[in-house]
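Forwarding these from the shared drive since the link keeps breaking.
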Amino acid sequence: MRLFVIIVFLISLLLSGQAKAQFFKLPPNIGSPYCESVDGTVSIHAHYDMARVDGCFDLDDGTGTPDLIVTNLAEPDVTNNSPWYGFKVVPSSTDDFNITIRCFNPNTLNCNADRYHPKRSRDGRSWSEIANTSITNSNNDQFTIHFSNETQPFFISAQPITGDVYYNRILEKLGAQPFSSRFQIGTSSNGSPIEAILLSLGQQSKMPNKPTIILTGRQHPPEVTGAIALSEFAYTLIQQDLLAVGFLDNYDVLIIPNMNPDGVADGNWRNNSNNSPLNPAMDLNRDWNDVTGFTQPETAAVKSIIDDIVAENIPIVLFIDFHSTHADKFYIQTNNYHPSTHADFPENWKTAAETVHGSASPYYLDETRASFYNSKRYMRDRFDINAITYEVDDESDISDISSWARAYAIAMTQVLMTW
């Protein structure tokens, strides 16, 4: 399906007279360029985790400035536009060149090409935003970046790369604690491990034995700011000062930081990467339904460990799912669906976090009742608990994300210790 859409889209460009030479190519062998300019002075590579290029060609005929067009396509049935892109640029001269990033979503009128401000990095670890003065032709479907005097390869990405290496670092740090267990809860559609961490003082086990908080993340691949918030939130929970107040004497914490490892690695906009024609890829946060849901291996793995906790008669007392969107906010339940106990937790949590941080929180409480079957709705309905979607603004500063995640983690322990 995706290849068909690519072909139709690029043929339309040719018929409109826009595309010249260096037409769309399927990816060659690892290490080879995905495409290159007609004059050979710059090439695009996309063979690493979180890279995403669905089409690439040069508009220039070799007589002027190279104008490389990089096209990315939404997965089938995606209606929430999160147009991910990621590739490595290898210049072979200091000549000027342009790269236009285009997105295409046949399910919507536009694809919000500029949702993520483009970022660059020399090493794939340290990132900076590309200056606005270098960006032109920005609209809902594309934007162009101008480059000059480039002498070394560099990465361009919608958000910083946070793939397997990033998550292994998180899991290693959390799993190294004497009160934590690192284990696999299942495998993804393509066989990648879905790993979890259990923070449980006084035992070495894969199963909680005290009232349990569940933290999940990365159901949607591009939502990097939410991933950063989850990691900082979790790191805070293993600090010695929190252990001293006895939080983990009273509660266990189950952390599943990356529910969609295939989608993250493939640079998907929204879905997992299930290639089964009988069980196609989908938005994992629409698969939380006991009747018609949990069809994907990723959500089924999470449900399985939740069922195991229930079977051991361990109460689940709080659920927080980390995401990213256009603003800092927490999706909570509407009045008619507040839990029967501790319904004031969101307000108390926010107030406590502001005290810890020493300033007013940028996160506001957004009462919603989803019409679809997402994790927040499922966990509230099944367990009658506070189930919260922790949303982080796409372009929030990393230091702000981290400081507020730490404040909210500490605040959570403070409020829960009063229950």
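-- next protein --
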Amino acid sequence: MDLEEARHFVHRTGFGATPASIRRVQRWGWDEASRVTVERLGQDQGQPLPDKWLQATKVRKPPRDRSELQAWAGWWCQHMVQTSSPLTERLALFWHGQLGASVPWVTLMARHITNVRQHLTKDLRTMLVAATSEPAVLLTFAPKLKARKGPGERFAQTLLERWTVGPGHFSPEDVAAVTRAFTGWGVDMATGSFVYDQRAHDDSEKTFMGRTGRFNGTDIINLLLDNPQTAKHQVERLWQHFVSPTPNPQEVADIASAWVAADLKFADMIQALLSTPSLRQPQNMGTLIKSPIDMLVGTLRTFYLPVDDPVALATTAATLGQDLTAPPADGWPVGNAWIDAERFGKRRQWLRRALREQGRRSAAPTVSDADLAKWLGKPDLTRQRADRETTRLLLATAPAFFQPTGQEPHAFVQSLVLDPSYQLR
């Protein structure tokens, strides 16, 4: 396993890539690295979540002060920097975009993402049954939720279009049936907890995707998850975040089949995704644009930089287009949607500041020739070889700009990090 392939693996399963993490994957080889990475799913060590964010809360009126919500977003950013299982956080971030919860109550958001993280050790069925009764999710779609009406038609449309079978695989009549099936789903405004009101539920017969019965919301989810199209659509979405912008239909079908055979357990699906041939192909290296979180968290992890101001980090991510408190209605973007000329300029500004701060720290890996070699973990390298290896470690593709030789280590590393190729993974 060469350096480029190991670097590619680390970037696709986490945030950033230190020389040490790349060498470890090289020693393991792809198959062993995949096994160990998946085995650690959910075994997440990092910044503990404050207990106050998991307590019951009144949700009658939105709070005017969003500082606690911003503090939670900052906590999550810091946790992603410090975690021992970056794959867990990458998947939690992906599902946060898919589920799209966005409410002003920090306790609901914190509980929701904590539950998503825990469900990653289980299966899609468990996650969706839980997510569709999450107050953060329900109140996102129906801010004035009434059990009699349930979360409504927009919720039903999203359940079908984004969380399960995908566009083109359901009808308006199916949307209407789902809307009726979820009547009775509500939130206790005094505690911020899910409640089910049997009296408010429409218990009459409904016809859904050719089946007729007195379905409730859980029945609908089970019917959707028994449909192989759900696994296929979700693998396609994951493919665009982990492999390449354009899914390979045959490999997607193979992964989806393996996932269904494993009762939709996440670990089995991720193992199949990491084993798919396209992920290892050189033409798929450096084909994904880093999201703001990818770039910010990855840079801090790569250069062993601390998070001095977690809220400022989360605010920067939001300014660059990835607000952890408000994912977009159709999920996190992929491809060129993450970046334009203005945002690229703002990314470079942040990188300059981060590296300038790095240069002030005594443990900075790129202040001198010796520090650069030490950061690489190869203290005997000549400066010329260290420059070549640093380029291979930091960039997924060849530099877009000419890199002059003879620069001081800090200036050399900065020139690589400011290169457009650094925005690819």
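The CA atoms of residues 204 and 214 lie 5 Å apart. The beta strands are 185-188, 193-196, 206-208, 211-213.

- D.
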